[in-house]
Design brief:
Elements lengths: L3 E7 L6 H13 L5 E9 L16 E7 L5 H14 L3 E5 L7 H6 L4 E6 L3 H4 L3 H12 L3 E5 L2 H11 L5 E2 L13 H8 L5 E7 L8 H14 L3 E7 L5 H11 L5 E5 L4 H7 L2 E4 L8 H8 L4 E3 L5 H4 L7 E2 L5 H12 L4 H16 L1 H18 L5 H8 L2
Parallel strand pairs: 1-2, 1-4, 2-3, 4-5, 5-6, 6-7, 8-9, 8-11, 9-10, 11-12, 12-13
């Protein structure tokens, strides 16, 4: 029997949550013998600096090796390649959407999906690109996929449409690397410090300055101090320099850059910290839940759906230094942290394992293939409930 050809298209595979998810999703879908799965990257990916080494051998990886900036030659080469390849399902992510412009007009057989990994306005703030996308969403030629209830609401408010498919993110089971014992020896010499781990690129929306100041405020008043480890690529160099000035000579705060072994840090930490201004459904939070690392987060985006305060983690009352410092104290002094860790692991297994997400994607693909690409959301909802 001929396999269903599924392609996931993304700009690159740098160390970000959406990129991590796309690799995991392709790996999981490729386990199904009825699929031939392609992961298509527009840009080149360095093996050491990206997730390219994590792509399973069952997934066919294709890169068009684009450098910085728009490339008409890559745009045309991708279109030509897709016309020849004729995927039954073509699922884009992030800025991959616009590189499909010609193929969207040319293809009469491919089914198109696009995942909105953030709030709708944050993912697509440009007025012209927003309206370009809306044309395809409204016509049902591109099926919009949202990843949380909050993300769905932002899509519906922003585009004035209600035809999105909600499929939550997921992550595979994580295994500690060979570096874990060395990190434990380095950071866990005694019980004299709380170890906090933040995972996120250095960018405005991640709001690391609030986190740093909250930790400094905590340490100024508490006997047992917090050691904050900040993991993430520097996306905004000016912001990074400002953060370094805020930290100054504070030995309790450490930037360690992007890491392949985030699981090791989460496993040894007392808490996972996110102080974001806005979020979709953070892969880093899913990873924290999976290993029982207690999340302490600001109440934004899909995070509110994932954390039940005092049950699976902790949410600050607002996005302020005082508010975050208060919730840190509550989390770190909670009398039953073992229960919260266990709840987090169970919540992950039931809701955010990559297998559940892949199954939901698979059902959506097969339903649309059965019904045709002009299917309305009403038809889709009927068939997926059967």
């Amino acid at each position: 029997m001929e396999k269903v050809k599924i392609m996931h298209l993304i700009g690159d595979l740098t160390k970000g949550g959406a990129e991590r998810f796309v690799v995991d999703l392709c790996n999981e879908l490729a386990k199904d013998d009825q699929y031939e799965v392609f992961l298509v990257s527009i840009c080149a990916n360095d093996e050491e600096e990206t997730f390219v080494k994590d792509i399973d051998k069952a997934v066919r990886y294709v890169s068009f090796n684009k450098e910085r900036g728009f490339s008409l030659s890559v745009f045309m080469a991708l279109t030509k390649w897709l016309v020849k390849a004729k995927p039954q399902v073509l699922h884009s992510h992030l800025n991959g959407f616009e590189y499909l412009a010609f193929y969207l007009f040319l293809s009469k057989s491919s089914l198109f999906f696009h995942t909105i990994h953030n709030t709708a306005v944050a993912e697509c703030p440009n007025f012209f690109i927003k309206n370009f996308r809306k044309v395809w969403y409204k016509s049902n030629k591109v099926k919009p996929v949202t990843i949380s209830f909050d993300g769905s609401k932002t899509y519906r408010d922003y585009y004035k449409l209600n035809n999105d498919i909600l499929i939550e993110n997921g992550r595979q089971d994580l295994v500690n690397s060979d570096e874990y014992p060395l990190l434990t020896e380095r950071y866990r010499k005694g019980e004299d410090e709380f170890i906090l781990v933040h995972v996120g690129r250095i960018a405005t929306e991640k709001n690391q300055e609030l986190l740093i100041k909250a930790v400094q405020q905590f340490n100024a008043t508490e006997e047992k101090k917090c050691k904050l480890i900040i993991i993430g690529e520097v996306k905004d160099k000016q912001l990074y320099q400002r953060l370094l000035k805020v930290v100054g000579n504070d030995t309790y705060i450490e930037f360690v850059g992007g890491k392949h072994n985030v699981v090791d840090y989460l496993t040894l930490a007392d808490a996972f910290c996110l102080s974001s201004i806005f979020e979709g459904m953070p892969i880093s939070l899913i990873e924290a839940l999976s290993v029982g690392c207690i999340p302490v987060c600001t109440p934004v985006g899909g995070i509110k759906q994932m954390i039940k305060h005092g049950k699976t983690g902790f949410l600050s009352k607002d996005i302020s230094v005082n508010g975050y410092c208060d919730v840190l104290k509550e989390a770190l002094t909670h009398p039953d942290k073992k229960m919260i860790k266990l709840n987090g692991r169970l919540f992950f297994k039931l809701n955010y394992h990559i297998q559940a997400s892949a199954n939901a994607h698979s059902r959506s693909y097969l339903a649309m293939l059965m019904l045709g690409r002009d299917t309305t959301m009403k038809d889709y909802q009927v068939i997926t409930k059967i």
